Amino acid sequence: MQAIGIDIGGTKIAGGVVDENGVILAEERVPTDASDPQGIVDEVVAMIERLRAGHDVVAAGVAAPGFIDAQQSLVYYTPNISWRNEPLRRHLTERLDLAITIDNDANAAGWAEFRFGAGRDVSDMTVLTIGTGVGGAIVSQGRLFRGGFGAGAELGHLRVVPDGLPCGCGAHGCIEQYGSGRALLRMANEIADVGGIGLALAAARTRDGKLTGHTVGRLIAEHDPGALSALRQLGFWLGQACASLSAVLDPQIFVFGGGVAEAGELLLAPIREAYLTHLPARGYHPEPDFVIAQLVNDAGVVGAADLARVHATAR
Ligand SMILES: [Zn+2]
């Protein structure tokens, strides 16, 4: 049973026909013009028409960044595309004779990881995506958690520091300011400023004019002590956030995705250490696994398709 998944990003729209084992049978992508919200709707319609030709699909799922309503039909808000209260499902079903569902992109990618990746053997999973910011997804008792209004699982805005650093969301002290790729760069710059273990970071900064995620990632892979120190700080904050999340959600597994998670065990070790130090009722709580995401590319496409297929066949 096949379904189409579409993942609308800030720079491209990716789409694919996906079977019930999460295998992509056909795929395409086009650049996004984020300034043209109507053009994006037109392109999604055209892409679904092209993909369904020659495939017997039961539904199409569309993943978009931002807040989606609990009925999976309305995009309240997207950060990059100027959609405000966009009735996306209606605009698509008016032009396509196909069941359509809309989901948040991080939730769709998390669902793919649950069904076909690191979470496939558990019922409860929490995903933290460590990219420029911090994204999240929650699966509880085998179901994707969306919240009562549909705006759930914004784990990046869990507060870890009272009156901490200002966040793009308007609040202060969110984990996104302490556990993201952007935070890693800030910490690496602070270590470079001090000298000592920061000498290699400082030298790279002088050579390139600034530190980039690529450079810090390379120094981490080379086990440079300054870069590793920055990564340990990041892990310290993420581990604390996981301890709080565990108290609420009790997942069997925490999955880390995004560019920073390429550090692998070097990131997971400090996360585990901080988690155990800060876990409420430590010693009486079964310890979850901390692992790296297995689906790197196209998780949004696969997850959106699978959610649409599950939704269509449940009716
Ligand atoms: Zn925030």
From TrEMBL:
<dbReference type="Pfam" id="PF00480">
    <property type="entry name" value="ROK"/>
</dbReference>
<dbReference type="InterPro" id="IPR049874">
    <property type="entry name" value="ROK_cs"/>
</dbReference>
<keyword id="KW-0808">Transferase</keyword>
<dbReference type="GO" id="GO:0005737">
    <property type="term" value="C:cytoplasm"/>
</dbReference>
<keyword id="KW-0067">ATP-binding</keyword>
<protein>
    <recommendedName>
        <fullName>Glucokinase</fullName>
        <ecNumber>2.7.1.2</ecNumber>
    </recommendedName>
</protein>
<comment type="similarity">
    <text>Belongs to the ROK (NagC/XylR) family.</text>
</comment>
<dbReference type="GO" id="GO:0004340">
    <property type="term" value="F:glucokinase activity"/>
</dbReference>
<keyword id="KW-0547">Nucleotide-binding</keyword>
<keyword id="KW-0418">Kinase</keyword>
<dbReference type="InterPro" id="IPR000600">
    <property type="entry name" value="ROK"/>
</dbReference>
<dbReference type="InterPro" id="IPR004654">
    <property type="entry name" value="ROK_glcA"/>
</dbReference>
<dbReference type="GO" id="GO:0006096">
    <property type="term" value="P:glycolytic process"/>
</dbReference>
<dbReference type="GO" id="GO:0005524">
    <property type="term" value="F:ATP binding"/>
</dbReference>
<dbReference type="InterPro" id="IPR043129">
    <property type="entry name" value="ATPase_NBD"/>
</dbReference>
